[in-house]
């Protein structure tokens, strides 16, 4: 495991392009910070932060307080914080509505020497009451463009990958990421997380149906312990939520998703029948994934003959299984390309299945098969 240390210099935390120009990223808080060169009154500092796309810093955890010590290391004057006194109740509050930590005051504070708050870096560090009309640096904060509101896929996109911020080195603390996957109409989405290394129980990846994170749309939680790595949606929209706490991080994860057509299984029973690829004898479509099931009377066998076959070699294929279950252990043959016909096979039991898969490039006429019992 990798624990992020709290007492690096501010410059150490600059990572890629997480923050806009002029802002600096802090890996302990996963936030962007900027300290102004100009001096402002408290009210003007709030307006300044808003004007550059942020807000005045309101400390939301003890780990952030410790990180701010390093961030303000080279600042001579104490910068404004986004907190002030309610003169009616005489209580201090954060402007952004977050919880105000009353135990973060420095020694002998809060005093009666003002109604606004600055951050004192020197030991003992903490919050200090300051007159609101004094001129101090503005201290601004914004959420970085790490992962939130990431929209993936689209009406013509059938697959893709995405990963945790910082992968494969390490992700950050205090993340709350959303990844919304959209696939073409009449498809569903499959997703696999591999590799997957996070702080279990405290950091989490959850998968939901649609654009939702509600209990009713919950699909599952990715886990290293029970090897729950693969999930499937019922429709063409899936939402992935990645949330981390304030302490330990690791290398993270890589997710691979694919869109699949909603193609019901074709089932045939009796004494004989005909099976064909989608659209045969015209070209099959891109991204087909069609399953076929055949069963005959108990004690009999299925005699399968393919008398016409042409697909894109290697990439479009027909799998033959000696079971109604499609798995590597039941796979008999994989047919692809320009197959010499006729091709014949007799099942060992009274049932068998097939699965036809095509990719997104070349399409051909496909195949034609007949079956009977023997």
**Radius of gyration in whole Å, from Cα?**
30 Å
CATH topology of the largest domain: Mannose-Binding Protein A, Chain A
Strand content: 35-45%
Do you know the CATH architecture of the largest domain?
Answer: Roll
User: Strands of the biggest beta sheet: in what spatial order?
Assistant: 10-12-17-14-15
User: What is the CATH class of the largest domain?
Assistant: Alpha Beta
Describe the structure.
This is CUB domain-containing protein. Residues 28-141 form the C-type lectin domain. The protein is mainly β. Helix content is 5%, strand content 43%. It has two helices and 28 strands. The protein has helices at residues 42-51, 62-71, and strands at 2-3, 24-26, 31-40, 55-56, 80-86, 91-94, 116-120, 126-130, 136-142, 150-153, 159-163, 176-182, 187-197, 204-209, 218-221, 230-232, 237-243, 248-249, 252-261, 266-269, 272-276, 289-295, 302-310, 317-321, 331-336, 343-346, 351-357, 366-373. Strand 2 and strand 3 (31-40) form a beta hairpin. The longest helix has 10 residues, at 42-51. It starts with a strand and ends with a strand.
């Amino acid at each position: 495991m990798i624990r992020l240390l709290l007492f690096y210099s501010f410059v150490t935390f600059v990572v890629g392009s997480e923050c806009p120009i002029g802002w600096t990223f802090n890996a302990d808080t996963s936030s962007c910070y900027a300290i102004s060169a100009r001096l402002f009154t408290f009210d003007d500092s709030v307006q300044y932060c808003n004007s550059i796309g942020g807000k005045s810093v309101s400390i939301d955890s003890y780990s952030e307080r410790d990180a701010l010590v390093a961030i303000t290391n080279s600042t001579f004057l104490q910068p404004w914080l986004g907190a002030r006194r309610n003169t009616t109740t005489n209580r201090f509050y954060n402007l952004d509505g977050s919880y105000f930590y009353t135990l973060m005051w420095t020694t002998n504070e809060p005093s009666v020497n003002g109604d606004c708050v600055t951050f004192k870096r020197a030991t003992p560090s903490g919050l200090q009451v300051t007159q609101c009309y004094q001129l101090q640096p503005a201290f601004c904060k914004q959420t970085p463009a790490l992962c939130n509101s990431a929209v993936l896929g689209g009406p013509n996109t059938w697959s893709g990958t995405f990963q945790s911020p910082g992968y494969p080195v390490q992700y950050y603390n205090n993340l709350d990421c959303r990844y919304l996957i959209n696939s073409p109409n009449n498809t569903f989405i499959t997703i696999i997380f591999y590799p997957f290394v996070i702080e279990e129980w405290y950091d989490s990846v959850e998968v939901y149906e649609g654009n939702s994170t509600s209990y009713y749309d919950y699909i599952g939680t990715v886990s290293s312990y029970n090897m729950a790595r693969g999930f499937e949606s019922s429709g063409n929209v899936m939402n992935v939520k990645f949330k981390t706490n304030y302490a330990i991080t690791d290398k993270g994860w890589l997710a691979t998703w694919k869109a699949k057509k909603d193609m019901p299984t074709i089932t045939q029973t009796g004494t004989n029948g005909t099976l064909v690829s989608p659209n045969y004898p015209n070209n099959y479509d891109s991204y087909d994934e069609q399953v076929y099931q055949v069963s005959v009377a108990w004690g009999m066998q299925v005699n399968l003959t393919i008398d016409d076959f042409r697909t894109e070699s290697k990439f479009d294929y027909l799998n033959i299984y000696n079971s109604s279950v499609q798995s590597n252990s039941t796979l008999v043959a994989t047919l692809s390309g320009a197959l010499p016909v006729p091709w014949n096979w007799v099942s060992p039991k009274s049932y068998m299945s097939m699965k036809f898969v095509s990719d997104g490039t070349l399409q051909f006429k496909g195949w034609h098969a007949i079956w009977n019992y023997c």
